[in-house]
Amino acid sequence: MAPVNLPWDLEEKILSGLPPLYLVRFRTVSQHWNALLNETRFIKNHLARVRPQIIFLTESKIYSIDIELGGGRVDPTIEVREVPSDFPYQATDLTHTTITTCDGFLFRDFWKQGVVIWNPWLRQVGWIEYVDKEFHFCGVGYDSSKRYKILGYFNCLRTVSNTYQVGYKKVAIYECASHALKFLDVPFKQWPNMAPLSLNGNLYWVTSNLEDTHHHEYVIRSFDFSSEMFRTFCLLPCRKNHSRDELLLAVYKRDGFSLLKQCNVTGEIEIWVTKNKIDEEEIEWINLMTFPTSNLPKLINKLCGVSYFIYDKTLIMCCGDEETGAACIYIVREDMCKKIQIDLGIVRFSHCVYLPNFISVPSEFRPLRV
Q: Superkingdom of this entry's organism (predicted)?
């Protein structure tokens, strides 16, 4: 039987819905497919159709979790893969280790050593070693010229008298291409207490509103790497009713935000999402879902952090089990609350990422194969 050639637009549609792991293998099928996978248009179409993944870190390895939600009577399933991660550094203190994303790449900060950037699907790694090892990593972004930069700070001492010194923090930017440090003359206030989100080159995080004297109102703060300025981005759609309520920010549909609020007293969870893209002038929030009686754990002060994303009116969340420390995936929607425990060691850190794309690691990072 002679092979059937599908219309090119149908082939492209089929390929754009496949996981990255398969697409990397299909590069060798033909020059035409290889060229297609490098096109910006195809990459955007592919990223628009795939779900985020959960990345979590144990004592010695990094794993990715792909969640298949099923549908109807089909139960959700997960697929766990080890992420290639043969880095030039060894983590000396996992409590200070951060994994984050920027522009489709994964970044891992090694405290007092440097930063690694990698694309596990292309098996490419780049790294930057800090010139000054006292630099404290905060987050990664880029300016209008697509030059990658790292926001951080230094712990400093100011001499007040011959017998007395006062500690303070000095904000700085590490420019990846030039390996130069630039100090910013800005006050160290409303600083993120966890790794901020990197979206469209800028950093975003939740913090208290200094203008609210009752300390129940919260805002999203941002840092723009082009203007090198901090600003209040928008007011959150809900307040804390109790001091130990939890507010978690995540990326929604690639160009918006979602907000998870959990009441520490009742355990009730509210999910809010932005109606429009974050680059528009006014931000409008929608109360998407509420789970009044869920079986989710209390999320306050989770040592390994909490990561989540919203997909098809479903909450997918990862955090460590309170008793064993193992990574647990919670899948919650109107008719279901399912917990899946992953027994691969104690989880030290988790992060929700949109799948890395097929772009090579930027040249300003020192290349290293894995």
A: Eukaryota
Q: Report the Cα 237 to chain-centroid distance in Å.
A: 21
- Give the three-class secondary structure for 36: helix
* Tokens matching residue 336: 């279901």
Q: Work out the angle at residue 315's Cα, subtended by the Cα atoms of residues 293 and 53, and round it to the nearest 5 degrees.
A: 150
Q: Which two tokens stand for residue 95?
A: 């409590």
Average pLDDT over residues 168-186: 90
d(CA 179, CA 256) in angstroms, rounded, equals 31
Tokens of 343: 């027994």
Both tokens of residue 218? 């919260």
Half-sphere exposure of 302 (CA within 13 A, CB side): 31
Mean pLDDT of 292-314: 80
The neighbour count for residue 42, using CB atoms within 10 Å, is 17
**Residues 126, 365 contacting (CB under 8 angstroms):** yes
Beginning with the edge strand found earlier in the chain, give each strand of the sheet holding 349-353 in spatial order. Answer: 77-82, 62-68, 53-57, 349-353
What's the predicted TM-score (pTM) here?
0.87
Kind of pairing between the strands at 114-119 and 256-262: unpaired
